[in-house]
């Protein structure tokens, strides 16, 4: 398996086309093993908008990315062919369900070609149409890092907001709730509907108090137990982290994961059968320092390392 053309990564970081991690811009899926993509959409938010600008700022901050992981010495760009396939082109941006159809159509050929997709949102509603595009033969497993379960039903007349993607995915037979773990859950709610739905349908819900008591290594091991050997997707909402680290997000909740805890958790998930993932809910208008986008870009790199190692081992 050949690696990634890193010519652009040799340029000064402030120059060149601002792709994710300075990988080549590429539209030919045959040349890729892992496709990086942006989903600039926040039509599903229930509070503060702005995540439509997330992919652009994550790309900007991802110019800080280097090739080789300092702990594992693994270089995902040498192990796999990685490219930026651009942003979802929306034809009907102001109608939530039709915008989701645009997302599904964009990702369908990626999964049909057997590629791993690593996406930057956008609000969390984008994950449901990505699951639809995947069209798995059997419901997939999920590792979900977030302050919220995102298993509420409807909000102000819509069942497709960023508070509902995993409920919709279970209902559609795309997601196996018994092989789903939700990590970092916290924050007061007006109803226990989301927590109750997740627990009653068999999802393993790790509230932040349990995470704090047991630590990232134990929770990573719990995640491995829950998902088993099933094909698994990784969805990371930056509000899963404490807003000290990721203030630029639409629904911040204090008392979340630290960056070090998140890195340790992700690194404990190596070796799973990854089929894709996303980092969502970066809202640059609330991120004046750019730190949220930097954290998101760094976590995307960590996820890329997981995915590339999985693909390299199976090649």
TrEMBL record:
Which GO molecular function terms does the record list? agmatinase activity; metal ion binding
Pfam families to which the protein is assigned, alphabetical: Arginase
Under the heading InterPro entries, the entry gives:
Agmatinase-rel, Ureohydrolase, Ureohydrolase_dom_sf, Ureohydrolase_Mn_BS
**Which sites bind Mn(2+) 1?**
146, 148, 150, 237, 239
Q: Which PROSITE patterns match?
A: ARGINASE_1 (PS01053), ARGINASE_2 (PS51409)
Which keywords, in A-to-Z order, does the entry hold?
Hydrolase, Manganese, Metal-binding
Record Gene3D superfamilies: Ureohydrolase domain (3.40.800.10)
Q: Which GO terms describe its biological process?
A: putrescine biosynthetic process from arginine, via agmatine
The cofactors required by this protein are: Mn(2+)
**Keyword Cell membrane annotated:** no
Which residues does the annotation say bind Mn(2+) 2?
124
Where does the source fall among the domains of life? Bacteria
Q: What does the entry comment about cofactor binding?
A: Binds 2 manganese ions per subunit.
In the record, the note on similarity to other proteins reads: Belongs to the arginase family. Agmatinase subfamily.
The protein, known as: Agmatinase
């Amino acid at each position: 398996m050949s690696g990634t053309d890193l010519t652009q990564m040799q340029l000064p970081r402030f120059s060149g086309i601002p792709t994710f991690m300075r990988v080549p811009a590429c539209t030919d899926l045959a040349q890729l093993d892992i496709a990086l993509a942006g989903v600039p959409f926040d039509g599903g938010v229930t509070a503060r908008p702005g995540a439509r600008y997330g992919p652009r700022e994550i790309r900007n901050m991802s110019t800080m990315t280097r090739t080789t992981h300092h702990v594992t010495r693994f270089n995902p760009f040498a192990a796999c062919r990685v490219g930026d396939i651009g942003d979802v082109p929306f034809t009907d941006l102001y109608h939530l369900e039709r915008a989701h159809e645009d997302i599904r159509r964009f990702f369908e050929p990626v999964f049909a070609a057997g590629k791993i997709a690593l996406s930057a949102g956008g609000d969390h509603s984008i994950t449901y149409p990505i699951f639809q595009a995947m069209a798995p033969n059997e419901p997939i497993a999920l590792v979900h890092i977030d302050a919220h379960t995102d298993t509420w039903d409807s909000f102000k007349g819509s069942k497709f907001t960023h508070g509902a993607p995993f409920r919709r995915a279970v209902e559609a037979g795309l997601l196996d709730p018994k092989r789903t773990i939700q990590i970092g859950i916290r924050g007061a709610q007006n109803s226990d509907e989301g927590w109750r739905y997740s627990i009653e349908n068999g999802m393993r819900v790790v509230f932040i108090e349990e995470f704090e008591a047991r630590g990232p290594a134990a929770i990573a091991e719990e995640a491995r137990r829950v998902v088993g050997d099933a094909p698994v997707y990784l969805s990371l909402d930056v509000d899963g982290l404490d807003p000290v680290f990721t203030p630029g997000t639409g629904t911040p909740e204090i008392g979340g994961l630290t960056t070090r805890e998140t890195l340790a958790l992700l690194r404990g998930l190596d070796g799973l059968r990854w089929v894709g993932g996303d980092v969502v809910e970066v809202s640059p208008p609330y991120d004046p320092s750019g730190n949220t986008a930097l954290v998101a870009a760094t976590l995307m790199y960590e996820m890329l390392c997981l995915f590339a190692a999985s693909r390299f081992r199976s090649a």
